[in-house]
């Protein structure tokens, strides 16, 4: 199957790290002359899977079945976390299915294209990130770290991804430099446990300093999801002093506002410690935008525990909340518990917390009224501010412009 004739389709499931990896798969093929098409017309369908919850795994199995049904001749390459945990489930779906470890995908794609695999390391170096069907994006994710040494009791990703490890700083700097030269104006650093980045004595703040020095003032950086334990004084001070070149926005997963529930989740902090960190962040950056993840209905969660989460959300003034109903993931300690919360209770709590989240987002936007922020123009009529709010594009601005807007 030659690259000049290959037609492919990528199905991405799961987190932002998966999104970056899927973009790299597409970029590897596009850079060799392959063509991105709908699944029905593809010679190769790549499904990048997720297994973070039982529900995510159901969606993954459905996606592979849909790929097979949509096209009766394409090879279906299944990779990612769900495939790493349970490859037999996917190979059993049909002879056209091939399960491939994520680190081997680039070499396989280059080989399939009839080309040499040099120049494409396990991170996809040598190609640019692209979203299939779009022009080169103005915001680009760059994966700097993989794996996780934590073992939250609801999560199996540390099994699927393995131990934490970090990409060499010089490779990251070179990729970021190329990506900026290609037109990206905002670069989002991503990783499964991003804050654990450690290479040759350097931490995340050290890496950011290198990246600031390596790029011009027209490029800004955004820190993707980072665990509370990894936000140290060095990172806070650097963000506060960077004058917006590091977006004053953090996605800081809370998961629960109840110390009891946090302990049973094996989260390494108490509720009051989380709040103390948030206070330090706001003291250093009063206009910080803070988003979060929350799980409702974790086994054993009482109404009192849930209300503690509501109270914590209000106290932290989150600008956006991603709310998840707890979903059993077989193979995790939480899934074995006998005190599972009833589905209707989880649904009710999710609905109530979503209302809190909507109020908080409106309040965050309101407190910024009249202030100025730089916004990145990403497509016609849409721009994203430093604080991660969407605004209308000023007249005359074009995709890729960084414009000052009044909220």
Automatic annotation (TrEMBL):
- For whether the record's keyword set contains 4Fe-4S, the answer is yes
Question: What are the Radical SAM core domain coordinates in residue numbering?
Answer: 134-364
So where does this one cross the membrane? none
The record's SMART domains line, in alphabetical order, gives: Elp3
Q: Which Gene3D superfamilies does its entry note? A: Methylthiotransferase, N-terminal domain (3.40.50.12160), tm_1862 like domain (3.80.30.20)
Q: Name one GO molecular function term.
A: 4 iron, 4 sulfur cluster binding
The residues covered by the MTTase N-terminal domain are 6-120
GO CC, one annotated term: cytosol
Q: Which key words are in the record?
A: 4Fe-4S, Iron, Iron-sulfur, Metal-binding, S-adenosyl-L-methionine, Transferase
SUPFAM superfamilies, per the entry: Radical SAM enzymes
Cofactor names from the entry are:
[4Fe-4S] cluster
Q: What is this protein called?
A: tRNA (N(6)-L-threonylcarbamoyladenosine(37)-C(2))-methylthiotransferase MtaB
Q: Which organism is it from?
A: Slackia equolifaciens
